[in-house]
Predict the 3D structure of the following.
Amino acid sequence: MIQLSITDGVAEIVLDAPKKLNSLDEQALDDLDAAYQEAEKAGVRALLLRGEGKGFCAGRDISDVVPATDDALGYLQGKVTPLMRRMAEFPAPTFAAVQGACLGVGLGLAIATDVVYVAENAKIGSPFAALGATLDSGGHALFVERLGAHRTLDLIYTADLMSGAEAVTAGLFSRAVPAEELLEFTREKAAVAAAGATLAFRESKALVAAVRDQRIGLWESLNAENHAQGRLCDSADYTEGFAAFQEKRKPVFHGS
């Protein structure tokens, strides 16, 4: 159910189980992890993650789960968390096109992606109240950081879902676009990133992660930026970028 294709330096990974809204069992998680590893080995310069059909990902596939013997901890800690870390640490810019349901583990996949574009009518939130379960896959951290504690618990207690447009207005994700334009829009942005100075993007990705995780503050980030710039000034893309600016032409970057 996981498809990978690579075109012009852009990997496109597709969750391809539309009949079950691309919900994920353990095998699908393993396959998704393998797809990210393959894309990294191929040296792609951008990656796009999307779901086939009406939904991005409705979360864990619980169709065959036996509650009395379920190992939710093993599923989440043994499979989901390592996958999210691999996704977040992918060396090139990553993009997600999110339509329809983005719930549970599906929300986690979005959280672990650099840039998330959502359909205006996407559905995002915590539907777990009816299951006697709790929001997982990083949802608490995302919601509290972006929405505050009161709104987070409102969504958890009521199981109300936010539209994609509401989620973007609240600061959860980057941009909301009409559903029929979402995939083309995201592909265009991924292609732009792939043609850009991806070595510099990698430095920014690491800096953003350090600031987000509160490993560095203002003055530490200034120092880290200075050193990043120092590393980049020895790169071919840095030389090309400055030369193109001085010669008033469009730069041609190679990610090196």
Remarks:
- The mean pLDDT is 95.
- Residues 72-88 form the longest helix (17 residues).
- The chain is about 45% helix and 15% strand.
- Strands lie at 2-7, 10-15, 46-51, 94-98, 101-103, 115-119, 123-125, 161-163, 175-177.
